[in-house]
Specification:
The protein has helices at about 5-20, 25-40, 55-65, 80-90. By secondary structure, the chain is mostly helical. It folds into two domains: about 1-40, no CATH class; about 50-90, no CATH class. Helix 1 crosses helix 2.
């Protein structure tokens, strides 16, 4: 029964999206809903970490930390203290 209202529901979402008098949150929600229905939700790959070597995991972790500015380069020492420091600053 709900499927018979699909055209009206989509029109309502489009109306909310295009109405500049609507709050931003409502317009964003309408846009997200339309995009996810029209294009599907992004696929999140699942990685079986049991098949990835410790060396490869550490290498990828270093790359991410360098990209986030938490390490200056990929050869800088990774210590527990170094990794936890940014988290302690947020407290």
């Amino acid at each position: 029964m709900a499927r018979q209202f699909t055209p009206e529901a989509v029109k309502t979402l489009v109306d909310v999206l295009l109405d500049t008098k609507e709050k931003g949150a409502a317009r964003v929600a309408a846009a997200e809903t339309l995009l996810s229905r029209g294009w599907g939700r992004p696929v999140t790959p699942i990685v079986d970490l049991s098949k990835v070597s410790d060396t490869d995991l550490l290498s990828e972790a270093r790359k991410l930390l360098v990209a986030k500015g938490l390490l200056h380069n990929s050869t800088e020492a990774l210590t527990e203290q170094r990794l936890l420091a940014p988290l302690e600053q947020d407290e």
